Amino acid sequence: MPSRVLNGIAASDGVAIAESYRLVDPDLSFKKVKITDVNAQATRLSAALVASKKDLAQIKEHAIQTMGEDEAAAFDAHLTILSDPEMIRQIVKQIRDQRVSAEEALTVVTDSYVKLFENMQDNLYMRERSTDIRDVTKRVLAHLLGVELPNPALIDHQVIVVAHDLTPSDTAQLDRHFVKGFITDVGGRTSHSAIMSRTLEIPAVVGTKRATELISDGQPLILDGLHGRAILQPTTEERQQYHDLATTYKTQKIEWQKLQNKPSLTKDGVHHILAANIGTPEDLAAVTENGAEGIGLFRSEFLYMNAQDWPTEDDQFAAYKKVVQGMPDKPVVVRTMDIGGDKGLPYLKLPKEMNPFMGYRAIRISLNRTDIFRTQLRALLRASHFGQLGIMFPMIATLAEFRSAKKIYQEERQALIDSGTPVGDPQLGIMVEVPAAAILADQFAKEVDFMSIGTNDLIGYSMAADRTNERVSYLYQPYNPAILRLIKHVIDACHHEGKLAAMCGEMAGDQIAVPILVGMGLDEFSMSATSILKTRSLFHRLDSTRMATLADKAIHASTNDEVIQLVDDFVF
């Protein structure tokens, strides 16, 4: 069979050669029919319940080994539901009374439970059970229909994951020892699947449009994350070619590794901080291996997304303390919970919104649910006693929001001091990702300790283009002079007030953007750990005075493409 090339967007460097694993839910639809043999349907139900219990027992055992007893305990609720005699009795009764199939009876009864629990607005625990019932129902239904559900937790050999898209919770459960790469239908370099692939240090190709349509389960694949393509059913010659490419890339990485403990200096000796973005304390190893000079973004929401309920103050304190102590004498900036948009929690019922990215999310949730916010701030303050911890508020749009957040922070800090709890004195900053905040940066700079530009959302909001929507992807232009002018304004505003100007969006590690940002005088570049050494190598080739000329020309250019050409002329 001849090979086939599938093109997409190169989202994370590297080459992987493995078989495919389709992380795609099967069709679980069924026809409603009247049945004659009710006993046969009851027997089918019983067999599906037994098979589902066996699945979950296996998944739980695997989870204990990979995530620990506490995380694996979540599957106990699923096993309990499968053994609930009252629910099973109702399903069997539905089969016998209505003479319907086991599939239909299961769906009718479980839907009624889900609706009942979801309406318990004053009982968080019971609302959470509705999610468990949905998950269990899907598993039992799959057994009844004779189809297999994908389960990434059970992957025990090297694979390349094929999906329409990967949510943050999907990627958080994958085992990097076995998952050698991602390929998706949708997304771009700033999609969560792309960002997480760089965090996991595995290649990724996104935005292929047809990966799930063209790639079958277990199919041999080559994933070229360097050039943004996949080879389906590769020939022997192609396998050798990409094996050689992987070897060459590995050699290049070894050369970059020599820069691990070197300062991040430009050719003319100007220092810029190269920091890392992380999602969990487990990412610290990659941070150290890649010679990061700090952590510019700890995405604290992953502590919430990997939990079955709100993480306690002590749980959060332990995680923040571990990261701070793991970066001795180096700054660690923690972003407060950034939930909403495409990041949800099973135990937080968010309103259905026409445009959730512009709705109830991030700091807006924190200022509304101050109980959650105060818990997080107390944990952060306690951890600040052990190192250089900074706190950053996401999605700030107005000075009033920052002042409200700061007031709550000050109240919690004083309460801890009054109780005799040792705390540090963290710097307070904001993520600049809302254009209004970028435009008003000169006023924010008078009140914050630092600003960190979140380019992923800043570009999307400025260009009115959803970065996950392939139809408008052409508008997601990081080098558009309008975006560059906003960035320059923020950097200048910070410097005017003697404040640090940082960037923690994916643009900070973009090899085209870096020379321009050096020319603008950006102080800190925070990126996926795997991009650090490559960027440090680029720094050594850049003269800051010449890059200042490049930056001036770039902000006065007319188009995104014109800026790319300028960088090519000046640097490459």
TrEMBL record:
GO terms for cellular component: cytoplasm. Residues 255-542 form the PEP-utilising enzyme C-terminal domain. Mg(2+) binds at E433, D457. One of its GO terms (biological process) is phosphoenolpyruvate-dependent sugar phosphotransferase system. The keyword Transport applies. Residues 7-129 form the Phosphotransferase system enzyme I N-terminal domain. GO terms for molecular function: kinase activity; metal ion binding; phosphoenolpyruvate-protein phosphotransferase activity. It is found in: Cytoplasm. Residues 156-228 form the PEP-utilising enzyme mobile domain. The active site is at H192, C504. Keywords: Cytoplasm, Kinase, Magnesium, Metal-binding, Phosphotransferase system, Pyruvate, Sugar transport, Transferase, Transport. Its EC number is 2.7.3.9. Its cofactor is Mg(2+). Belongs to the PEP-utilizing enzyme family. General (non sugar-specific) component of the phosphoenolpyruvate-dependent sugar phosphotransferase system (sugar PTS). This major carbohydrate active-transport system catalyzes the phosphorylation of incoming sugar substrates concomitantly with their translocation across the cell membrane. Enzyme I transfers the phosphoryl group from phosphoenolpyruvate (PEP) to the phosphoryl carrier protein (HPr). This is Phosphoenolpyruvate-protein phosphotransferase. It comes from Secundilactobacillus collinoides DSM 20515 = JCM 1123.
